[in-house]
Amino acid sequence: MIKLHGFAASNYYNVPKLALLEKGIRFEEVVSYIGAGPNYNPEYLDRSPLGKVPALEVPEGFISESRAILAYIESAYPQHPLLPESPYDLAKVQELSQFIEIYFELVARRLIPNLLSGQPPKPSVLEKVEADLTKAALALAKLSSFEKFAYGDKFTLADIAAILHLPIVRLVGTTFLGHDPLANIPGLSDYCARMEARPQVIKIRADAAADRPQFITHFKSLYGAQ
Ligand SMILES: N[C@@H](CCC(=O)N[C@@H](CS)C(=O)NCC(=O)O)C(=O)O
């Protein structure tokens, strides 16, 4: 059986996990908390060369990087497809997924250490994060109307990106910027409520909540945060 390595409090770990749950594929979870620099567990670097979570263990070996893992899952398990068939629609789903990851997740991620440690971010970092998120929020409304799903009339990889990465943007915004940078995107709040009601997303959230205390303990032991 394929094995997913990582930890449930990680939004990136949850990307392939949600894909596997939505497709109804059986998999085993192997808990691996990541390290940093000299604290890396050397064995884990054989699974994911930068020590990042997730890694997928398949009969042929290990795959790191959530996008590559999703590509493997889609082609190895064609049932309940998470990508449309038409080349244009498929590209648009990938465009939206990539957009959310690059222009929202990776920007908000700059403040995750502050969220975890409670340390206030540097004003220059805050300013840049706010400017980048504001620009991306205006653009996101052009890519999706969030009417039913993030793209088209079926659950796709774009929904996985949206429901796993956008809540972090909202959390970072309300915590450090004093507002939700996504508040004015038409349809987004109702869309998120619909996605949160999916049984697979409910499971992801429950597993993440159960894992959070262990993850925080791990984070503090690694970075010495209070
Ligand atoms: N590009 C990677 C990003 C994965 C990632 O950043 N995972 C975080 C956990 S949410 C991680 O492993 N961070 C530890 C590190 O960067 O050292 C992917 O798509 O899988």
Briefly say what this structure is.
This protein has 226 residues and is α+β, with helices and mostly antiparallel strands. Helix content is 58%, strand content 7%.
Describe the overall structure:
The protein is of the alpha+beta class and 226 residues long. The chain folds into two domains: 3-81, Glutaredoxin; 87-199, Glutathione S-transferase Yfyf (Class Pi), Chain A, domain 2, CATH 1.20.1050. 58% of the residues lie in helices and 7% in strands. It has nine helices and four strands, in the order βαβαββααααααα. The chain has a four-stranded mixed β-sheet with strand order 2-1-3-4, with helices on one face. Helix 4 (87-108) runs antiparallel to helix 6. It is globular. It starts with a strand and ends with a helix. The model has no long low-confidence stretch (mean pLDDT 94). Glutathione binds at residues 10-12, 34, 36, 51-54, 65-67.
CATH architecture identity of the largest domain: Up-down Bundle
Mean pLDDT: 94
List the ions, cofactors and other small molecules found in this model. glutathione
User: Which stretches of 5+ consecutive residues score pLDDT under 50?
Assistant: none
Number of DSSP E strands: 4
- Main CATH class of the largest domain: Mainly Alpha
Number of helices: 9
Q: Report the CATH topology name of the largest domain.
A: Glutathione S-transferase Yfyf (Class Pi), Chain A, domain 2
Shape verdict: globular
Biggest beta sheet attributes: 4 strands, mixed
Order of helices and strands: EHEHEEHHHHHHH
Q: Please indicate the percent range of residues in DSSP E strands (runs of 2 or more).
A: 5-15%
Kindly report how far apart the N and C termini lie.
Answer: 39 Å
The radius of gyration computed from the alpha-carbon positions, rounded to a whole number of angstroms, is 17 Å
Describe the strand arrangement of the main beta sheet, using strand numbers: 2-1-3-4
Structural class per helix/strand content?
A: alpha+beta
* Total number of distinct structural domains: 2
> Helix share of residues?
55-70%
